[in-house]
Structures
1.
Amino acid sequence: MIKKLTLGLMFFAASSLFAEPAITAIKVSNSIDLSKTKPNDAIWSKAKSSTIICYPQTTIKLNDKKANELNAQNKAKAASISAIYNANSLAFKITWNDATQNIQLPQKSDIYGDGVAVQFAQKFDDPKKLPYIGMGSKDREVLIYLQKAVEKYFEPNKDIEHQVSRDNTNAFGDDLKKYDAAVKALAITEYHKVFVGEGFRSMTQVRSDYGKLGMDMSYKGGKWSAVFTKPMSDEYVDISKVGAIPASFALWDGDKMGRDGLKYLSSWVAVKFQGKKGGDALVDELTSEPTGDAQAGEAQVKAMCASCHRFADQNAAPAAMAPALYNIGGYSTSAYLAESIKEPNAVVVPGYNRNAHANFSWYSVDDNGTRTTTMPPMMSDDKSIADAVAYLKTLKAEVEK
Amino acid sequence: MSKRQLAMVMDLNKCIGCQTCTVACKTQWTNRNGREYMYWNNVETYPGTGYPKKWMDLGGGFDAAGDLQEGIIPNIEADYGVPWDYSYDSLATFDYTAGNEKAGLRPTSEPTWGPNWDEDEGTGNFPSDNYFFYIPRICNHCTNPGCLSACPRDAIFKREQDGVVLVDLDRCQGYRYCIAGCPYKKIYFNPKISKSEKCILCFPRIEQGLPPACAQQCVGRIRFVGFLDDEESQVHKLVHKYKVALPLRSDYGTQPNVYYVPPTEAPAKFDAEGKVIEGSQRVPVEELEALFGKDVHTAIKTLKDEKEKRAKTGESELMDLLIAYHHSDMFRLDNNYYQEFAKESGKSLLTPIDERYSSGKNTKEITHFKVHA
């Protein structure tokens, strides 16, 4: 009873400024094959949706000039997310506003498809040490489901004969129709992919039919709705024996040339399985408000961090000196922020391209490939750290109306 | 930087703009499946719009401090030109009795732009001081590639054995940052497969001791291929011994490995009466300096001096090199080098796949590419 009350209070707290809501996955019948679920199926009327905010990724700046201009003033996007589960699978439905439907086309080079992803942590037994939000980190791997709006396209090297343009064949009339049909049959119709990652650049695609299951997205009336279904247990992440899991979500806006790091991402969000026990520590960790004094934290962070990091109105640091913190409060957990201040080497985000900015290295790499961050431990007393975290959690863009 | 570096030298005095290299490359690599618009090798007229349009103004590369610069990604319609075909099917089904105004054989898309749209236009007033020359361009297989630095997927790699820069198509997700990062715009987006593709320096030929198709087919014999550290190679002699071959736009900071012998042999200008102005330079040396850097002055001097020496004494190693007597001397690929390497690694050929991810890192099944065993 007390537990229920706490949970209820936490959901109430979700509407406050800092705390993130949890998602409750509703139990449905085991006889339903969730991997076949579409966004508009009636089953979703049973689910409860939560509003999850996805913040513009600003930790790293990429090198596409036009895209950077288009994304310079990005606000955060709200996504409405619900979940259902049974003994076999967990399914998410994600709905978000997007004024333009962008579908990548096989004959155009300047169109970027809208997209959406869900990220699962491989290990989450210690809720204070979840993987780095940006595609995981060393020894804290993640599994990522990604789908994008694309028209049919070829995978390379599957078939050589049918790679020639129809006008370059010797076929006429019916033979040409046959050729077109063969080409169509060979094309891949969906961009549904699953990756394993341990940090920027490292994502490696899972090459099996595994990722072909359980993804779909549809656009109607200025909104995208997407479904992802993950088996409760598979060789990558087993979520069958727990009461709650962390998940995070990302959105791409093709209209703003969104792809890769040009995205909106949420922090780790707790997903509670209705009717299952356990996972309370995780839910607590991901839904609780920071305890420190943000005002005291602001003074400290501005004094101690601004020479290397850029954030809020602090833009004095060289652009490529260190991760930019403009939206760090939106997509990082309090535990991650505290850990990084106290122990910068706990998570050294791999994949920052040292060659692209030879004069500023975020970290050094020894002969064994071990990364050591350039950042020294900044604070050691719990009060200062809590205050700094409370301030850092306020660093995030406004939500788009 | 790779252990060794393959390089190509192109003698611009001898390029006649015949596009045989372009065709050799196209028929071998880019005539299908979304690559139709790509020219891994192109020959452009300079001064001219270039391919893609105004590529030198699109950013990418590094600044003096070594920071990767933002770039603009050209698009097919506006900057490369949509390749058109003539459909024989439309001819077969054409109704000749209907009194159509247009002929039956029509382009599949209305031609509005393409490579060499402004071929041979050049600049200046004909015949007194007009000029142009050709620049054949392939991927520079840079020592510090902008594309590689820009890739957020670790999908581009530089082979240790010969410095060839390749895209691992298994890892490429078609994000196109590489195109913004390459100041030469020599990496292309294939929209049909949604991946980036580029010149591979014909590595399957190279490994068998054959030069790249563009170099083999060049009728002007302007292309030399070899390892830069091989003192016997003509590439080494032209680049390091005589210093007459220079990289294109080295100010982009990528350390390109294709070198050019600058064009020095343009005819003199004419005056208003059509008489030769003795000693005049038709191709302004400032233009050459903008393309090939300050070293172009010494390169030009060396070329002129050696030419004179040859005329007077009948002897000049440099002139003999540039005459390009034998393919066997121009292409020194050190065949045995690749064979030895293959033996050591236990493979019969070099793998084109990036070794960093080939062990199945993170996933149980990583690739559908069949690498030769």
2.
Amino acid sequence: MCLAIPGKIVELVAGQNLVGTVEVTGVRRKVQLGLLEDDMPKVGDWILIHVGFAMSKISEQDAMEQMRLLRALGETEQAMEEIRGYGLEDDVGHEGPIQ
Amino acid sequence: MAWKTMSVMRVRFNEGKVPRQMERSNMRYVDEFRDPELITKASEEIRRLADPARHYRIMEVCGGHTHAIYRFGLKDILPSNIELIHGPGCPVCVLPMGRIDDGLAIAGDRNIIFAAFGDMMRVPGAHGSPFEHKARGADVRIVYSPADALELAKKYPEREVMFFAIGFETTAPSTALTLMSAKAQGIRNFSVFCNHVTIVPAIRAILDSPDMRLDGFIGPGHVSTVIGCRPYEWIARNEGKPVVTSGFEPLDLLQSIVMLLRQLHAGEARVENQYKRVVPWEGNRAALKVMAEVFELRPYFEWRGLGFISQSALRIGDKYAMWDAEQRYAVPDTRVADPKSAQCGEVLKGVLKPAQCKLFGKECTPEHPIGALMVSSEGSCAAYYNYEYRKSLVTRIASVA
């Protein structure tokens, strides 16, 4: 739970304060961006996610390395389960990997 | 010399592809290391800097580091006079059993939904883990985010959702923002049972412990993204011990050890930041602001293995009293002593190695944990069991066969 999950911002959700959609290895989910209020990420930026909240902006290369680290620690499955599990969705129809 | 040959072999190994089915095993491969040449360089630098006449005791504070250190077998890369002591930075591990019992006692009311992170589910209370309570009829749910728990409350307006919050400063801001959101939206069937703790008082308690001798600290990575590096300055200034906040990759950890050894070699004690790509020196202002808005310091809080530590934990402030489970429900205030035979406290303080505990690998295993250090993958006992102990079992079996 100490380890953070990297994701790419693909959308800033309109009408919802400080919520963005991220993509993590093909799975899209909403995350809270409130902790990055002072330095809001833009679409295309990479972030580290911890318990459903973006905690810092990182470079794309660091995001790749972080994913590799999670794999090595055997925590990818747990991470993906976590991403799928964020119950921040309104549109249940969009669940599952986006091709 | 033998070590040098091994490191070269490791780098060469990197050129080959690791078969897919092997990726899942617990064995380690240089393939997973970023920049194997730099790994070799850092290891050589560590050997050069480490004074053979000294024995270095370096504590990694964070449980994520403990997991990575075991996973990548860094002990095998380090010279034998550098000892890594595993610190208190695993939130599941330091939570006293009585708090779990208190939370689960509240969930005895069948109108209450007990929501917690997956890490909590197998942690034993005196009357069983959250999962065991679920089997007995309590409504226990895994959530992956505090915001998730708030969504549950919106989904079940006739029920009451209590989020069992654990974690250091990495996690506390997310709980704080969720409470602010609950207040802003006027969601009243939601509450938080707050067990958030702060890392610095725990480090202080460890340094005050008479049986403890440490040379320096590998500072936590993600906690420091929130609090920054300044809160560690007293460790360098008053205690004369260097601190280097570190990333989680093998190269990060080795570089941090190089930075610590350089300071020790030069007789210096400073706070340095190896994890600059993620940790800002001043921390995350927005996160600190929401924590200050929602939480206040408890006068004292019990830590498993470390006892009561003053001003080491957070409670929910008056403005959010309505969402504070401890004010809303009757809390039994359970105190449970750890089983006498389990030596979690000594292991947590680094006085004993996991395998030196009488129960290790016998009564207490990751499948049947007795102490919390065996429950979480970030706990030093589970990490040691999964990566060192099992491996030694396999070796022993192989040598017999």
